[in-house]
Design a protein that fits this description.
This protein has helices spanning about 185-190, 210-215, 260-275; strands at about 5-10, 10-20, 30, 55-60, 65, 70-75, 75-80, 85-95, 100-110, 110-125, 130-140, 145-150, 165, 175-180, 195-200, 205-210, 220, 230, 240, 245-255. The protein is mostly beta strands. The longest helix has 12 residues, at about 260-275.
Length: about 280
């Protein structure tokens, strides 16, 4: 079964999407590049070997780890557990150079906990910027309810990660980060905002919640320890997914060459969300 898709925009390759079951428990995008060819994702960095480019990664789905690495246990801290799940590629509904539609089974202990419908599309915005439109729908197919959690909901303050997550390249200097109203990691992390921009050496990324529900999710932001941005499904409280219900999120990411200021980032987000 082919589990690789190559994405192109304006006639240039901009992303590779793959799932290697022997090496990774989830499909992911890497490398993703700007139109000029600058890489803006990182795969299995030394500081966090389970960081895989851009993906949907959740550390706690009904107690199972779909993030990778250790699991945070209340009163015990990060702990190596045999509780890892797998996002299994079930098939393509569509697979073209400008996007794809995929079905994914979130499986653990021989059972499917969630069924995901994932849609990814690329669109040109300018000669130096393009947009990655990433939406996912998680349906609980079982007879009983379950919930999604995070290290924060399990007792680790500030670690509400889990959901769409983008690991950016680590460079000599930490990237700048800002939202429409705030600057810096401390001011942006853990807060909801229409978008968050990350700007490194010759590149910028602007992450935008493209639905009202997505915009309510706080952003998980790291720049000093490592560069990464995620949209948090369970930042402070567990997210219930009753039997038969679906959780839907959509994040549009602007990928640009060079630095962006606040006005430039906002203008590209407006164009990207309606592209």
């Amino acid at each position: 079964m082919t589990t690789t898709a190559l994405l192109s925009c304006a006639g240039r390759p901009v992303g590779r999407y793959t799932h290697l079951p022997a090496d990774a428990a989830r499909p992911y995008l890497h490398p993703v590049t700007t139109l000029a060819g600058t890489p803006v994702t990182e795969e299995r960095p030394a500081d966090h070997l389970h960081h895989l480019g851009a993906s949907v990664a959740v550390p706690d789905v009904a107690g199972y780890n779909f993030w990778g690495g250790r699991t945070f246990v209340r009163g015990q801290g990060p702990t190596a557990l045999d509780n890892h799940g797998t996002q299994r590629h079930l098939g393509w509904k569509l697979c073209d150079p400008d996007g794809f539609v995929e079905e994914i089974g979130w499986e653990a202990d021989g059972a499917e906990l969630l069924r995901e419908h994932r849609t990814v599309a690329v669109a040109a915005l300018s000669e130096t910027a393009w947009a990655l439109d990433f939406s996912f729908s998680l349906t609980n197919p079982g007879p009983a309810g379950l919930s999604i959690g995070s290290p924060a909901t399990n007792g680790r303050p500030g670690a509400g990660y889990g959901g769409f997550f983008w690991r950016a390249p680590k460079e000599a200097a930490a990237p700048a980060v800002f939202s429409p109203t705030a600057d810096g990691e401390e001011a942006v992390h853990g807060r909801a905002a229409d978008w968050v921009a990350l700007s490194g050496d010759g590149w910028s990324l602007v992450f935008a919640g493209a639905t009202e529900e997505t915009r309510r999710d706080p952003w998980f932001v790291r720049t000093t320890e490592y560069p990464g941005v995620g949209s948090s499904l369970a930042a402070a409280e567990r997210l219930p997914v009753p039997a038969g219900t679906t959780v839907v999120r959509r994040i549009v990411t602007v990928v640009a060459d060079g630095p962006l200021d606040r006005a430039g980032a906002a203008a590209l987000v407006r164009r990207a969300v309606t592209a």
